[in-house]
From TrEMBL:
SUPFAM superfamilies recorded: Winged helix' DNA-binding domain (SSF46785)
InterPro entries attached to this UniProt entry: ArsR-like_HTH (IPR011991), HTH_MarR-typ (IPR000835), WH-like_DNA-bd_sf (IPR036388), WH_DNA-bd_sf (IPR036390)
One GO MF term attached to the UniProt entry: DNA binding
Keyword line: DNA-binding, Transcription, Transcription regulation
Limits of the HTH marR-type domain: 3-134
Keyword DNA-binding: yes
SMART domains assigned: HTH_MARR
Taxonomic placement: Bacteria, Bacillati, Bacillota, Bacilli, Bacillales
Gene3D superfamilies: Winged helix-like DNA-binding domain superfamily/Winged helix DNA-binding domain (1.10.10.10)
Domain of life of the source: Bacteria
Protein name: MarR family transcriptional regulator
Organism of this sequence: Aquibacillus salsiterrae
């Protein structure tokens, strides 16, 4: 392909999706970056900060800042880990009680964004995205 159009299109689509999902998550008082951490902990259970930034492929200081906001707003709690530097992150009762409603918002958003694709195309897109950069 000429002009790197695939990566450009992927980047533009990602920026658009991030903008729209942030608008949708506004009613819950969180942003996409915060949701990604909450989702991560819900999916895998309590995690260290290191496990979170490695899984999300985000720099450690960025995750630390986002965790601080989540903690300040009552979404997560950080506890001491094996040594003094390690912190284990878990969801608060508030997060556990509200996460289903947030997931509904995300599911609705995803359905709307993918409505033009057949189930087979959705699966193919997911498989292709998993291969990009790997």
């Amino acid at each position: 392909m000429k002009g790197n159009t695939v990566i450009h299109e992927l980047h533009q689509t990602t920026r658009f999706l991030s903008k729209v999902v942030n608008e949708r998550l506004q009613k819950h008082g969180i942003f996409q970056s915060q949701w990604m951490i909450l989702y991560c902990i819900k999916k895998f259970g309590p995690m260290t900060q290191t496990e979170i930034w490695k899984y999300l492929n985000v720099e450690a200081p960025t995750v630390t800042r986002t965790l601080t906001k989540l903690e300040r707003n009552g979404w997560i709690v950080r506890q001491k880990g094996k040594d003094q530097r390690e912190k284990i992150v878990d969801l608060t009762d508030k997060a556990k009680s509200e996460i289903t409603e947030i997931e509904t918002t995300i599911d609705t958003f995803e359905s709307e964004m993918l409505k033009g694709l057949s189930p087979e195309e959705c699966e193919q897109l997911s498989n292709l995205l998993a291969k990009v950069g790997r």
